[in-house]
Design brief:
single chain; alpha/beta; Gyrase A, domain 2; Isoleucyl-tRNA Synthetase, Domain 1; four-stranded parallel beta sheet; globular
Length: about 600
C-alpha cells in the first residue's frame, strides 16, 4: 500500500509532466504551515529557473489541472509559487479503511530483504551491567524490531566480552583469595566441581580490586598476563574457572535484559572468534595484505585522500599476542561464514567511531567481506545527569543498570499510589511496565547520536512527551472500547470509518496516515526517535479528538461505530509502535 505522500506525488508529478515540465518538480512534502494546508509543493520555484517563467504562473497551471482531482478538497497557488493542498475527507476515510484491513496497516515490506547482524550488547562477564550499557541495548533492540517489521531477517548478537587480560586479572584475583581451590592445583586430574566457587557479588568485587592491584604491583600484573596466556592456550583449570564465570555472569545478564525487555538471538563471545584467527592471519600474510612493523603484524588502512591520521590495524603484537583489532576482524570472518549477512551493524558509544572505521576499512581492503556487504557503525551519545556530565551515583561511582531501573520503577510506583486507587501488587506490576517505558522512551525519543539529560521527574511524568503519557493514552482508549463493548454487547455493526465531521477528527485521520512514511523513514535512517515523535503526535491528536467528542454518549449508532473503529485503529497502531520501541502497555494505570 503506497503512502499518502507517494499517492499525492504521483498526481502532482503527472500534472507537471502534462504541462510540459520535468516531473521531478512535482515533489510533495508535508506542509510546514499546517494552519494553512496539509501538503505543499514548491517545485514551481525551481522550475521557473529552468523554464524562464514566473513561478506563480507555473503553479497556477498545475493547480488548474489538479483542482478537478477528487483527492483534493482545496488546492491553490500562492505567491511567489507555492502549491498548497488539503485532501478530501473521503480520501482519508478510504485510506484508513484500507490500512485497518491490513495486518501491517498497509506498510509495504522490503522487496529485497537483507540478512542483517546487529551487534548491540557488549557486556563483559564478571562485571555488572551499568548505565553505560543501557543505550546500546535499548537502541539495538528497537532497531532489530523495526528492521524485522520492515521484512529483513535480523540476528541480534549480545557479543560478550569474555577474553583478554580482564579474565587473567579475575582468575589471578580469585587465586589470591582462594589459593586452595582445585583449579589451581596443577596435579589435579579429577572432574572439577559443577558449582562455581564464587557468587556474582564476589566476582564483581574481584575484578576492580585485581585491576587496581595490577597498577601498583608489577608481579601481580605479570602473573595475570601469564594466566591470560595459559587460558587462551587451553589451561584446564583456568578454562573451568572461565566457564563458571560465563555461567554465573550470563545468567544474571539475561535476568536484567529480560527486565529491560531486551532479547538476543545469539550470545556469542569474543572467544568464539578465536578458532578463526590462525587461518585469518595466514590469509592476510599469504595475500600480502599485512606487513611487519617493529615486530608486529599490521594492515595499513590509511588512504591518500585522508585528511586525518588512520593508524594501521594491528593484527598481532610483536610477542604474537592478539588484540581487539584481531578478535573484531575474526568476528567479522565468523559472521560471514555463519550467516553470510548483507549488512552488519555495530551499536556503541560514538567515541569509538574511528576505531570501527579502521576495522571496516581493514575488512574491505583485505576482502574479509564481500564487495557489497554493508558495514554500519551507529554511535550513540552519552546519557548525562542534570548537570550535563555523565550519569553517576551520588558518591560519584558508575550506577548499575539494575539500580537505575529500580529507581525509575519506584518513582512511577510512588506516583501511582499517590494518585490512583490500586492495590500494591497491581501497582508494582503496572509500575514495572511504565518504568521501562519511561526509560526507553526517554532514551529513544532523542536522536541516537546526541547526548541527553536523564531527568527522572520528567521521564516518569504522565504528561508531555514521555513514555507514561503514551501508555496513559493507550489505557484511555482501552477503557473507552471496554465501555462501548459493554454498552453495545448485543448489537453487531460492521466496522467502518466514515469521513471526518470535525477538524479534530480530520487532524486525527491525517496523523494516522503518516504511519507508513514514518516507519519507512525510521527504517532507512535507522532512527527510532521518528517513531517516538509520531506516536506523541498521534497521542496528542487522539486526546484532542477525545476531549471534543462525546464518543460513548453519541446517540447516532453509525457515527459512534465510525469513531469506535477509528480509535481502535489508533490503539492498534500505538501498540505496534511501542512494540517496535521495545516496551509494553498495562491494562490500566
Amino acid at each position: 500500500m503506497k503512502t499518502v505522500i507517494e499517492l499525492i506525488n504521483e498526481e502532482v508529478k503527472k500534472a507537471f509532466k502534462e504541462k510540459g515540465y520535468d516531473e521531478k518538480y512535482g515533489a510533495v512534502t508535508l506542509s510546514n504551515r499546517p494552519d494553512l494546508c496539509q501538503y505543499q509543493c514548491n517545485g514551481a520555484l525551481a522550475a521557473a529557473k529552468q523554464y524562464k517563467m514566473p513561478p506563480i504562473k507555473i503553479a497556477e497551471e498545475i493547480v488548474e489541472i489538479l483542482k478537478e482531482n477528487s483527492i483534493f478538497k482545496n488546492i491553490s497557488a500562492i505567491m511567489p509559487g507555492f502549491i498548497n493542498m488539503t485532501l478530501n475527507e473521503e480520501f482519508f476515510a478510504n485510506y484508513l479503511n484500507q490500512m485497518r484491513l491490513d495486518e501491517s496497516f498497509g506498510y509495504e515490506k522490503e522487496k529485497h530483504p537483507q540478512t542483517i547482524v546487529i551487534d548491540y550488547g557488549g557486556p563483559n562477564i564478571a562485571k555488572p551491567l551499568h548505565v553505560g550499557h543501557m543505550r546500546s541495548a535499548v537502541i539495538g533492540e528497537s532497531l532489530k524490531r523495526i528492521l524485522r517489521f520492515s521484512g529483513h531477517k535480523v540476528i541480534g548478537d549480545a557479543h560478550l566480552g569474555d577474553w583478554g587480560t580482564q579474565m587473567g586479572l579475575v582468575i589471578a584475583g580469585l587465586k589470591m583469595r582462594k589459593p586452595d581451590l582445585v583449579y589451581f592445583d596443577e596435579n589435579y586430574q579429577g572432574e572439577y566441581p559443577k558449582e562455581a566457587p564464587f557468587t556474582l557479588s564476589e566476582l564483581e568485587e574481584i575484578y576492580p580490586a585485581a585491576s587496581e592491584l595490577s597498577k601498583e604491583n608489577p608481579e601481580f600484573r605479570e602473573e595475570a598476563k601469564h594466566i591470560t596466556y595459559l587460558l587462551q592456550n587451553g589451561h584446564r583449570g583456568y578454562t573451568a574457572i572461565w566457564m563458571h564465570m560465563l555461567d554465573v555472569s550470563v545468567s544474571d545478564l539475561k535476568r536484567i535484559y529480560e527486565i529491560l525487555n531486551v532479547s538476543f538471538d545469539l550470545w556469542k563471545k569474543e572467544s568464539d572468534a578465536q578458532p578463526y584467527i590462525a587461518d585469518m592471519v595466514n590469509y592476510l600474510k599469504e595475500n600480502n595484505y599485512a606487513r611487519i612493523s617493529e615486530g608486529a603484524l599490521v594492515v595499513d588502512v590509511k588512504e591518500e585522500t585522508d585528511t586525518k591520521e588512520y593508524p594501521p590495524c594491528m593484527i598481532l603484537k610483536s610477542d604474537g599476542a592478539t588484540l581487539y583489532d584481531t578478535t573484531d576482524l575474526a568476528t567479522i570472518v565468523e559472521r560471514m561464514k555463519l550467516f553470510d549477512p548483507d549488512r552488519i551493524i555495530y551499536i556503541t558509544d560514538k567515541r569509538q567511531e574511528l576505531y570501527f572505521e579502521r576495522i571496516f576499512r581493514c575488512a574491505r581492503k583485505t576482502k574479509l567481506v564481500k564487495e557489497d556487504t554493508i558495514l554500519n557503525f551507529i554511535g550513540f551519545g552519552t546519557m548525562n545527569g542534570k548537570g550535563g556530565k555523565p550519569f553517576k551515583t551520588r558518591d560519584g561511582g558508575v550506577m548499575r543498570l539494575e539500580v537505575l531501573i529500580k529507581n525509575v520503577t519506584d518513582e512511577v510506583y510512588n506516583k501511582i499510589m499517590e494518585n490512583r486507587n490500586m492495590d500494591e501488587d497491581e501497582a508494582r506490576e503496572v509500575a514495572s511496565k511504565v518504568g521501562i517505558a519511561a526509560l526507553k522512551y526517554g532514551d529513544l525519543s532523542n536522536q541516537v547520536s546526541k547526548d541527553y539529560i536523564f531527568d527522572v521527574d520528567r521521564f516518569t511524568s504522565f504528561e508531555g512527551d514521555t513514555g507514561p503519557y503514551i501508555l496513559y493514552t493507550i489505557v484511555r482508549i482501552k477503557s473507552i472500547l471496554a465501555k462501548y463493548n459493554e454498552l453495545r454487547k448485543d448489537e453487531k455493526m460492521d466496522p467502518v470509518i466514515n469521513p471526518a465531521t470535525s477538524p479534530v477528527e480530520n487532524d486525527l485521520m491525517l496523523q494516522i496516515t503518516k504511519f507508513n512514511e514514518v516507519v519507512k523513514s525510521a527504517t532507512e535512517e535507522m532512527a527510532p526517535h521518528k517513531i517516538c515523535q509520531f506516536i506523541f503526535d498521534l497521542a496528542n491528536a487522539f486526546n484532542s479528538f477525545y476531549h471534543e467528542t462525546k464518543i460513548i454518549a453519541e446517540e447516532d449508532a453509525n457515527k459512534q461505530n465510525s469513531w469506535i473503529t477509528l480509535i481502535t485503529l489508533v490503539l492498534d497502531i500505538l501498540l505496534l509502535c511501542i512494540d517496535l520501541l521495545g516496551f509494553e502497555a498495562p491494562e490500566r494505570m
